[in-house]
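Schema walkthrough. Field components (list of strings):
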Amino acid sequence: MPLLEVNNLRVDLPVEAGTLHAVRGIDFHVERGEMLCLVGESGCGKSMTSLALMGLLPRKARLTADRLQFDGIDLTMLSERRRSDLRGARMSMIFQEPMTALNPAYTLGNQLCEGLIRHRGVSRQEARERAIYLLERVGISAAKDRLNQYPHQLSGGLRQRVMIAMALMCEPDLIIADEPTTALDVTIQAQILRLLRELQQEFGTAVIFITHDLGVVARIADRVAVMYAGEVIESAPTPALYANPAHPYTRGLLSCIPAPGKTPPGSRLQAIPGVVPSLVGHVEGCAFRNRCPQAQPTCERTPPLMSLSGDHRARCHYADRPVPAPRPPETIS
Amino acid sequence: MNAQPITEVAESRPLPSDSASVSRAVTPALELCGLSKTFTLGGGLFKRGRTLGAVSNVSLRIPRGQVMGLVGESGCGKSTLAKMLLGLTTPSDGDVLVDGRPVRGADQKALARHIQPIFQDPYSSLNPRKRIAQIVGLPLRVHGIGTPREQAAHVAETLDVVGLPRRAAEQFPGQLSGGQRQRVAIARALVMRPDIVICDEPTSALDVSVQAQILNLLLDLKAEFGLTYLFISHDLAVVEHLVDRVAVMYLGRIVEEGTREQIFGSPRHPYTRALLDSALTPEPGLGVPDIGLGDATPDPSDPPAGCAFHPRCPKAQATCRQQRPRLEDIRGDNARVACHLA
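Field assembly_structure (string):
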């Protein structure tokens, strides 16, 4: 049984103009100890998905799901109290901006130990010892002194290391990391990603890693789910997704980043024309069809989730057809 | 805290037309000569503040029609450098030469005619209460170019050039997508028909699918108008795609500068190498490389002695801790590097 199973998850938000369908019936699962990357552009619903899993959706949001099961526990049926027992103890979260996620008024020691004391009922001393151990594991020197420091006394990279240590305090089964390295410099990003991957494999923690960066995904993910307009449009083991992207949107995303050694410098990049459709109101048919180079009249109908080889699925009427030759890139007069 | 003078005399500033440049007969479109900016932190009536060398002794030449990439981590001085070029902050020392003529301090308006910016965030760099036509036309009104009728025609033409529909002219920024807003920012920069455009992270706030559209547009416009770009970015894949030359900045100084092939093909400064290693290209199976740097980012107001990079450098030696390496063209191949070990 997978650690997390999500079937037909929907998140609706009331907005002025009607209802925003932020997440539109997504399916995915996470195995124990694996790194699943949720990748997509802004507004695709990836952050809403993570908040839904953590039970941290805005109050007015409406969540429905055929199945939302974490280690056999039905998350949709849990009381808020039971939910918060899970949060931090068995599933924890790493946010993009550690400065806003850490409380500026409490010492790092306080914030690191709080969860362990609350969830596991250990003594303050035991909690401190684990905090020191984990701070050392995430590569922070003078860990003991750091416990008495405040978040503002650390650099961005160090704060994100503290967040990783904090997420690991109760040895959770699942960590949800929402763009944890987007705000960092590239050199620091590489170090943090390396660390996260190492610890994840060592502790056997499952991670849902949310990002928009296909470079990061390629380097750390076991499996990938690509989101577009509130749907998972393709999911596959990482090598398969990069070798044989089946959805036109995935192909588009991959071809619009310049690949050193492949894309001739100064040449035109394959852009995806147009913009993401509005998710307010009812969305009919394939949400990508207005931007899709291969769209057919069939695409007015909602595409099925097609099973390709193995664990590779794509939501496209033509996912199992050979890839057409690329169109000549559009020119601006 | 003792205040250290930031601009040292040891590194002699290259003159605008030193012997080496005489052979290169063409005057560069943009030249920076020993440009520095120091800020004073803290201090008061009886206490001297600390000085912070945000940009120290930067010299660069950008030939006409070329793209110079400027890369480095946050806080390295990239944006301060851009602000000086745009006349938004006064250099503490050094000169900016446009077409070989110094424009220091004197006439900010004149500078704006030649150099225009495109900023990172198209959400905050456009006035939400003005219509697109007013935003794009503002530089023309400020400089008093043409009659209102001519200005309107020129704005419409510029909107065409950047691929915006004519109807966008009457809309507000809030009605446009991120990519369209960035096109507005580009139109505003181009309406003055500048020679030089400073692109400060022009695509970082955009989604990748939109980023490609904007990069294509920047390349088209460069070809069409013979523009010269200073392209500031932390995205090395984008930089490699777009630029002719690259300058790498660390803690306010250029540590390496050369052609795209030189920098991306055979980087010589350990910092450049680390930057390139940490760029994660979409190639599965490679994992995340160990770039061998500490993340102890140094304090710009208290830079390390010697080579500023030595506390993070995996190869640092005794010399690196004592002596600051000079930015030099060691091999005579028109590439400069500031490293004792290069």
